[in-house]
C-alpha cells in the first residue's frame, strides 16, 4: 500500500514541477515578445477609455489587453479613473 502511495506522490510531484516550468516558460515568452522600450505622452480627451487609447496607439498584432495592462501599470491608473486633460505615458511596444 505504501509503495503505491509513494509512486503516486512522486508522479504528482513530477507533474506539478512540469506544469510550473511550462507556465514560467510561457509567461517569459509572452513578455519577451512585447517589451516596453519607450513611452510617449498622451493627453486624455473627454470620453477616452484605456481600451480606446490602447487600440488607437498600440501596434497591430499585439494583444490589446497587454497594452492596457502596461498603461495601467506605468501610470498607476485603472479603467474608469481617467480624467480629461490627464497626461498618460503610453508604452511603445516592440513586437
Topology of this structure?
Elements: H1 2-32, E1 35-43, H2 50-57, H3 64-75, E2 87-94
Antiparallel strand pairs: 1-2
Helix pairs in contact: 2-3
List keywords for this structure.
54% helix; two-stranded antiparallel ribbon; Membrane-bound Lytic Murein Transglycosylase D, Chain A; alpha+beta; 3 helices; single chain; 18% strand; 95 residues
Summarize the structure.
This protein has helices at 2-32, 50-57, 64-75, and strands at 35-43, 87-94.
Question: Could you explain the architecture of this structure?
Answer:
This protein has 95 residues and is of the alpha+beta class. The chain is 54% helix and 18% strand. The chain has three helices and two strands; from the N terminus they run αβααβ. The chain has helices at 2-32, 50-57, 64-75; strands at residues 35-43, 87-94. The chain has a two-stranded antiparallel ribbon. The longest helix is centred in the first third of the chain and has 31 residues, at 2-32. It starts with a helix and ends with a strand. The model has no long low-confidence stretch (mean pLDDT 82).
